[in-house]
Amino acid sequence: MDDRPMQPLKPGATIGILGGGQLGRMLALAAARLGFDCHVYCPEPDSPAFRVAARHTVGAYDDAEALATFASSVDVVTYEFENVPAAAAEVIAACRPLYPDARALATTQDRVAEKIFLSFGAGVEVAPFAAIDGEADIETAIGVTGLPAILKTRRFGYDGKGQAKVGTLDELREALERFGGDCVLEGLISFESELSAIVVRGADGLAEVYDIGENRHENHILSETIVPAPLAAETLAAARALGLAIAEKLGYVGTLGVEMFLVRDQGEERLLVNELAPRVHNSGHWTEDAAVTSQFENHIRAVAGWPLGAVTRTAPVRMLNLIGDAAADPLAILADPSARLHLYGKREIRAGRKMGHVNYLDR
Amino acid sequence: MDDRPMQPLKPGATIGILGGGQLGRMLALAAARLGFDCHVYCPEPDSPAFRVAARHTVGAYDDAEALATFASSVDVVTYEFENVPAAAAEVIAACRPLYPDARALATTQDRVAEKIFLSFGAGVEVAPFAAIDGEADIETAIGVTGLPAILKTRRFGYDGKGQAKVGTLDELREALERFGGDCVLEGLISFESELSAIVVRGADGLAEVYDIGENRHENHILSETIVPAPLAAETLAAARALGLAIAEKLGYVGTLGVEMFLVRDQGEERLLVNELAPRVHNSGHWTEDAAVTSQFENHIRAVAGWPLGAVTRTAPVRMLNLIGDAAADPLAILADPSARLHLYGKREIRAGRKMGHVNYLDR
C-alpha cells in the first residue's frame, strides 16, 4: 500500500465506488456536482447507482481480477458499506488509495474489533460485551452481560438482521446455533434515546461534525431522524466531542456514522457508543437539504483530498425513511410543497426495503 | 400529437433530455434525486450529461430515425436548449409528450416570433424591433429603431454570438452581410440593470416564480447573478408578475427564463423583456443551493406532471460563473468552506467556456 500523503484529485478525476445501492447512488450524485466521474462496482445488475455513473462493473466482491481492473480504472476508491471483504480491500489498496482505509474497515466490520477499539482504543463507553465463538464461551459471557442480553453475529449484520434478544440460557444456545457461532453477546441497555453523530474528516486531519440527530426505529429499521435532537446543549456537545474523538483515533478519512445511546442513571447522563459505520449514514440524509454541505459531498471531498465544506445546519429538519409501501404514492408526499423527496430508483417495492426518504424542513 | 391531459409519470419512469451540456447534466441529477432514469440525446460524444444518465444516444438533431428511437425509449422528452429544430420537435412530439411544447420552442427560437408574442400576445414591453431579411428592409427598420442599434440573427444566437452593435448604415450593411440575412434589428436600450425571472409552471397550470436576480455580464457572457436583486420591492413584484404572465400566456410547462431590462425614464421605471429561454437558465443556478426546490428539480417535476416544489429562497446568494481559467483551481475556491462549487465535468478548459459556477450564500 502506498503510504505517501494523498495528493488532491484533479478536477474531472474518477472516483470508484464499491456498492451500487442508494448510498452509492447519492455519493455518485454528489461527486457529479463537483465534476468528478464515477465508476461503480456492484454484484447486482441494474443497481441504482449504476444509472447515475459514467461507468459501472457488475462483479463479485471476491473476484480479485475484476476488482483490480476496476481499481486501476479509477483514481481513488471508496465504498457504501462496511462489509467489503478484507481480501477485496487488499486487492484495491495495492493499486489505488482506498478511503476510508483498511484499518477503518477492519475495525468496523467486526463487532468485537469495533468494541475493543471503542473501549480500549478510543476510551469511550460501550455496552458490556463478550465474544462468543461457541458453547464454551457462554458462561463467561453471561457473567459479563447478564441476561437478558442481545446476541449478534460479529459480521454482516444490518437493520436488525443477525441479532436476537435472549432472555434465558436456552434462548441463547438456540440463537448461537442458528447464527453458527462467531457472535458477540451484548448487555441490554435501557436507553432514553438513540443519537447519531455524523462526522467527516479530511485527508488533512481537519474534522467537522454535523448537528446531532435523534433516531427512531421501527422493526429494527431506522424510521426517522430529528435534528437537532431535542436534548440539552451539554448532551449534544458531548455527543459531538465523542464523534470527533473516534474519527481522530481512527485516523479516519471520509464520513463516519456514530450511533450512540443516551442512558440516564439516577439523573446522570451517559453516552454509550452502539455502532460505527465507516460510510455515509442513513441518519445523515437530512444534510442533503438542511446543511450547507451534505454528508455525501463531504465524503467525496474527503476521499478526493479536497477541503471539507461547512457542515452548518440551515433549518430544523425531520428525515423520514420511506420503507416499502410508504414510497408507493410519491405525489401524496409532494402535496406538501416543502417536502424534499428523494427516491432511490429501486425497481420494485418490497416490505422492509428502503425506497427513499423525505426531509421536512422547519419540521 | 397527443392532446390528452398529461398523466403524471410513474416513479422510476424515464425522462428523455435533448442536449448533453451542463444544463442537461443538472437536469439529469435532479431527475435522479426523484428516482427517475434519464436518457440523454446529444450529437457530441462524451457529453457531460451522458456521464450521469442511465442511457445516452449520440445522434444528430436532424436524424429523424435516431430521434424516433430515442423518443420511443422514454416516457417524456425535454431539452436543455431552445434551438431544437422544428422537425426534430415534430418527430418527438408524434411519439411522446414534449415539454416545454412545440409552441414554446417555435416562439422562443426565433427572435422575431418571440418579440411579436411578447408585445402582441403577452402585452409586455420590448425594445423597438424590426425584422431585416435583406437590404430592402434596412430603411424601414432604422425608422423603427434608430441608430445605433443591435443587429441579431433571428436564430441560434447565444452568449453574444450572432449579434453586432451597429452605429452607421455601413456597419449595419456589413453585419447583415456577415450574418447572411434573416436578422432582427433592435433599438439600443439604455438600461439600469438586467434582471431575471425564473418561472416554473406545472402541467396543472399552477405557476411559481423565484426571487428576482440581477445579472452582470462580461464579454456578453453571464458573469454573476445577485439574489435578491437590490431593487425596490415594487420593481421586484412587477418583474415577478411579468414572468408569471408570460408563462401563463404561453401555456408553458417547465422552467422558463425571462431576461428583462430595467429602464428609468425621467424617474419612472419600466421593465422591457429582452429574451425568453424555454429551459432552465444560468441565472437560476443559485436555486440549487439557496431555494427549497431548485429550478432543475421543478423543471423535472413539471415535465413529469408532478406537483411543483416550494420556490422559497433560503438565503441571500451570489452566483458566480466559472468561465475558462476561472475553473482551473477549484481548491482555491473551496478554501471558503461556505462556497458551493459546481463543476460540469467538461474535459478541457477553453476561453469563454462555462466550466462551472459557485454559489456564495449570505454573500
UniProtKB/TrEMBL annotation, chains A, B:
Coiled coil residues, start to end: none
GO cellular component: cytosol
Annotated keywords: ATP-binding, Ligase, Nucleotide-binding, Purine biosynthesis
NCBIfam families xref list: PRK06019.1-2, PRK06019.1-5, purK
Protein name in the entry: N5-carboxyaminoimidazole ribonucleotide synthase
GO MF annotations in UniProt: 5-(carboxyamino)imidazole ribonucleotide synthase activity; ATP binding; metal ion binding; phosphoribosylaminoimidazole carboxylase activity
EC class (word): ligase
UniProt-listed GO biological process terms: 'de novo' IMP biosynthetic process
Organism encoding this protein: Methylobrevis albus
Pfam families: ATP-grasp (PF02222), PurK_C (PF17769), RS_preATP-grasp-like (PF22660)
UniProt keyword annotation of Glycosyltransferase present: no
Subunit structure: Homodimer.
Catalytic reaction equation(s): 5-amino-1-(5-phospho-beta-D-ribosyl)imidazole + hydrogencarbonate + ATP = 5-carboxyamino-1-(5-phospho-D-ribosyl)imidazole + ADP + phosphate + 2 H(+)
Organism lineage string: Bacteria, Pseudomonadati, Pseudomonadota, Alphaproteobacteria, Hyphomicrobiales
Protein family per UniProt: Belongs to the PurK/PurT family.
